[in-house]
Amino acid sequence: MKRRVLVADDFPEMRVLIRRVLEADGYEVDVAASLTEARAMSLDRYDAVLVDAKLGRELGTELVSELRSQDPAATRRCLVITGGPATALPADVAVLAKPFNPAQLLTAVRALLRPDARTPGDHDLADSPVPDVKPGTPPARESERSTVGRPPTWFLLDVTRRLRLRERASVAGLLHDSSLQEIAAAAIELGLLRRELQPGLQPAVESVTNRLDAAARSLRSLVDEEWLPVPAPELSDAVQQRTSWLLAAPLAVEADQQVPIRPDELLVIVDLAELILQAMVPDGQTARARLSARADESLIHLSLTVWPAADDAAIADATLHKLAAALRASMRFRPGQRRWMTEMRLPRWETQDRTRKTH
Question: Going by C-beta distance under 8 Å and a sequence separation of 6 or more, which residues neighbour residue 217?
């Protein structure tokens, strides 16, 4: 008996190509172009439900949520296909990132039905590398943070982070609706074509496939990589994540926390490190940098060294002094021939507020 699969995707070419791949492997496939069409089908009769994360202006994950509400175990037969970041998807649902080839699609569907399944119609594609199919991780949430005594500048940094997240979502959506959709369709078509080609033509198609994969990885990096840090025990991870675009190598971080740094303070440290680097790194160049951070009862101490140095120390000095004034931090800038160093001491506002109240 054939396994039944429902494919919900608003991009017509993707529906046709996915259907071709699955039917050639022995599945019985129905397709839907919207949530409305998918809901009109008896979803409980399908062994697997493949749904695009974004169906036009609708979210395919809504269909997964509806199935979960009826039967929590139903998520085990759901596969979300996405051109966006997996972090925005439910944690208990399998994810297949676009673009993918026929072998990766078949591997993902078989994993839903039975991890060790070998369905009728298996061929050499079944022995291809396993794709990046993984459960999505839920969006990280910032820990609740005290706002007592925090200067307005800290709130401005919060607003800037939220705007950057919205910008990221907009870019990811644009890539998904245009470039990634087209590349995903082309990748599947090439995979289907390779089955029918004579051996002598295989190298040429493989070369085109490799170029397509390289372009896809570049686009996926814009979608998948975290643009903003989340509170984490390791300060170095968060800072490196946020500053890699400015540097030739990951930022070296030395942290000595005599007093634990709160999550809201960690975010400000990362913001501050990025802003300092923007002032110190030469335009159009990449540099290396080292950050030393420590906290005591009343202050956060930062020391950031950059090399090679830029040409105009006066501009960097003026920018850094304005930044320090806005944050009510003390600052010392020490430019050298090869290296520049900035030291800042940032008040721990909640601690200072408690001190004022007790005197």
Answer: none
pLDDT, tens digit, for every residue of 229-284? 444 457 788 788 788 878 888 888 888 766 777 877 888 888 889 889 888 887 77
Question: Given the structure tokens 């493949």, which residue do they identify?
Answer: 50
Bridge partners of residue 334, in order along the sequence: 341
Written as six digits, the tokens of 251 are 């930022």
Please say whether the beta carbons of 291 and 253 come within 8 A: yes
Q: Helix (H, G, I), strand (E, B), or coil: what is residue 255?
A: strand
d(CA 65, CA 91): 12
Segment (H or E) for 305: strand 299-307
For 237, the token pair is: 């991870």
CA 73 – CA 95 distance, rounded (Å): 16
**What is the pTM assigned to this prediction?**
0.55
Residue pair 324/346 in contact (Cβ under 8 Å)? The answer is no
Which CATH fold topology does 1-228 show? Rossmann fold (3.40.50)
CA 180 to chain centre: 15
Neighbours of 31 (CB within 10 A): 19
> What pairs with residue 342 in β-bridges?
304, 333
Token duo for residue 272:
């501050």
**Domain limits of the chain?**
1-228, 235-357
Question: Which of 133, 128, 84, 129 is closest to 108 using CA atoms?
Answer: 133
Q: Which pLDDT score, from 0 to 100, does residue 222 have?
A: 64
Q: Structure tokens of 284?
A: 């159009």
Instruction: Tell me the residue type at 176.
Output: H
The fourth-level CATH superfamily of domain 235-357 is Histidine kinase-like ATPase, C-terminal domain (3.30.565.10)
pLDDT digits (tens, 9 = 90+) for 180-221: 778 888 888 888 887 777 777 777 777 887 777 777 776 766
Q: How many Cα atoms are found within 13 Å in the side-chain-facing hemisphere of 220?
A: 17
Report the C-alpha gap between 306 and 114 in whole angstroms.
Answer: 53
Say which amino acid occupies 299.
L
pLDDT exceeds cutoff 60 at 118: no
